[in-house]
Design goal:
Chain lengths: 335, 335
Amino acid sequence: MNNGVNVAVFGATGAVGAEMVKVLEERNFAVNNLRLLASRGGRSMKWRGGDVPVEAVTLASFEGIDAALFAVEGDVSREWAPLAVRSGAVVIDNSSAFRMDPDVPLVVPEINEEDMVTHKGIIANPNCSTIIALIALAPIHRAVGIKRLVASTYQAVSGAGKAGLDELEQQTRDYAQGKPLSVSAFQYQIAFNLIPHIDAFGEDDYTKEELKMRNESRKILHAPDLRVSCTCVRVPVARSHSEALTIETERAISPEEAREILKTAPGVKVVDAPLDKKYPMPLDTADQDLIYVGRIRPDQSLDPGKHGLVLWVSGDQIRKGAATNAVQIAEVVIS
Amino acid sequence: MNNGVNVAVFGATGAVGAEMVKVLEERNFAVNNLRLLASRGGRSMKWRGGDVPVEAVTLASFEGIDAALFAVEGDVSREWAPLAVRSGAVVIDNSSAFRMDPDVPLVVPEINEEDMVTHKGIIANPNCSTIIALIALAPIHRAVGIKRLVASTYQAVSGAGKAGLDELEQQTRDYAQGKPLSVSAFQYQIAFNLIPHIDAFGEDDYTKEELKMRNESRKILHAPDLRVSCTCVRVPVARSHSEALTIETERAISPEEAREILKTAPGVKVVDAPLDKKYPMPLDTADQDLIYVGRIRPDQSLDPGKHGLVLWVSGDQIRKGAATNAVQIAEVVIS
């Protein structure tokens, strides 16, 4: 009975939590016992051909648990993660609660797995748009050094969880039937619209979502001086985020050299044959784990003597942007 | 009978052509006689409470015409514009055929009306995404000089004309009814997707649409050294283009100063109160003529000692991005 670890998924009924369960099964994660937790119990979920009940979280929930995957809001993580750690679990937390805590590693396993060595019970999963950008940028950063990043994101509704997915779906159906559209998950109608407002506004009138791209990228890449400016925009797409990335590099790199580096980079699929109409698109990157990278070209706006590239990336926000990355961290934890 | 000018709209049945007719009427353009032209005649269109037949274009079509608004493909413009000029008409051409011709003024009346003085019969209407960006950027350029622009666009399906609008509508209805989606106006499905491919690929693997932003901006602003890099992306939005613009300026400018300048700039509406959830969105900017500008903030990625801003703009691509700008040019021509 003990040839595996005991795993809890907290927030199992949300979009990311449900995907974590799916990814654990898909990747044949060495689970001995799986415990599914949520604020409220009741329903059950499929697991290896059977049904596992979803339990309401209690102080006893994390007893005997080795790895706890948290897919809950930040304030819930802040309350429950220390309790889970006290019960002996390693917590992999998908919220923003602990990401910038100097005692908490912030990890994309393909990039900075080594940062996990020093963990004190909690390991943070980065923000989805940061993971998707860095899977493409980290190999280039290692090769030629990235000094500056200007990012514009095109973020899917799944970033607001199941409620976001349901709202785009419902608005689409209501529109097609000539009914009035109702709004609750987002600030405004998202069908046929764009909303340049994700998370709350903060420093310099940037949103926290935009500041995460800067702060988390610096921590993950160990590049405290990296200069980042980001515009985050919600788009009427289901589950893959896309991003236009303009980077300035310390040393020269051609698009061909970048393509060669990215072809062997973990987690990346280079899709960059524009004359054959091959470039990353969210419909193609949904429901799989690779970050597609394409439209790689020189930055025509650079000062003479400066170096840089423009890229276009797309990846599934629920999978590599959240659930898969968390499960990958858990794989390192138990290995 | 002669208290007005004779106007032709060529391509009157397309999305831009039909809007030109609407804008001519809305603005009480001093039309004596209106002639509607298309490759094929047949139907008729509403004009001042009556019906005007759409005629198939012939060599006689432009006789007696003072101003001819062209909303046709580039190759059609290239064939017919010189013939219309020979008939004595001034052609205002919405295609890309003549935009970079040194003998043809490329005009946004709010910015460079004075360039029209030297026209030789043809005046070019700039590309939609260029007009929308420059209405916001030209006043800032005049104040502090723009050296560099990094632009990411979020372009509506109306950029592909009526066929583009119809395709998003049909795909949405088919999706809601569980039918398979068919694709013809765009390279791939556009509903719930993003396509980073507008117009053909060219220099440096940029699309022509992306290169237009650079080339046309330089010509309109009389800024041959302006450095521009652009990523153009089609999004599932009906008729307003939006753009994330990152500019480096020669002299310092604060977001507050930019807002003050833009508040009195022609064609601009500043919508920039993020804490009140006020920012430009394509649903709000459709079917009117102002370019909404917001999310104005410092560029956090600049080198120390450098100056710049990040902005978010949105404007109706069929109106100010095409039809209204053309009618405004015609108003200057006849005045």
